[in-house]
Amino acid sequence: MEQVPRTDDIDAGYCLRFLREVRDVAFATTDEAGLPAVRIIDVMMVEGGRLYFVAARGKAFYADVMRTRFVAIVGQSPDFRTCRLRGAVEHPDDEVEQHRLVDRIFELNPSMQELYPGDSRYVLEAFYLQDAQGEYFDLSGTPIVRVPFALGSAREAVAGFVITDRCVGCGTCAEACPEQCIATGSPYEIAQVHCLRCGRCAEVCPHDAIERRS
């Protein structure tokens, strides 16, 4: 696992490498009844700004992905660094391209040959995320760090609590913040890169000046 990076070094490329090193990550989909389903799936390859995974055609996970063409994934390192990513899933329909991708994935992941020897590998099909929103979240130090990122043409997600112009500068929110990431000003301002997004500031504000944006 790469060492903890500086905040300025955290970008989409770093986060893709992070997820590849974590490898076994949680993939969330919805099933036929519209209920949530989560599986641990391997990140098989990261190339060209894309994250690749595979699924066997007989598995429910394959059916879920083919039906919705959307996944949300999250991986965490032993030292409590997390990357999450969600977006539309691409699936090459061409059989020749599918075989090429599966062969490439088996080159990078030789242990797969024990599970799917010979031509049985081609029951697997390759998928990738190319346009997706994500976030790096680091609880390994103080203060915490969170950095949004995006793949391809997707835009970085804008979320979190913001202090509006209804702020009167009383300081109640700054005193209550567990991360001490609210700076004085007019209005006060939340340092989003260090915010837990716990909502404590919004709960204690006597003027309802803090709103959640998502």
UniProtKB/TrEMBL annotation:
Position of the signal peptide: none
UniProt xrefs under InterPro entries: 4Fe4S_Fe-S-bd, 4Fe4S_Fe_S_CS, PSI_iron-sulfur_center, Split_barrel_FMN-bd
Gene3D superfamilies named among the record's database cross-references: 3.30.70.20, Electron Transport, Fmn-binding Protein, Chain A
Domain of life: Bacteria
Keyword Transport on entry: no
Name of the protein in its database record: (4Fe-4S)-binding protein
Keywords for the protein's UniProt record, in alphabetical order: 4Fe-4S, Iron, Iron-sulfur, Metal-binding
Domain 4Fe-4S ferredoxin-type: 158-187, 188-214
Keyword Cell membrane: no
GO MF term list: 4 iron, 4 sulfur cluster binding; metal ion binding
Organism from which the protein derives: Eggerthella sinensis
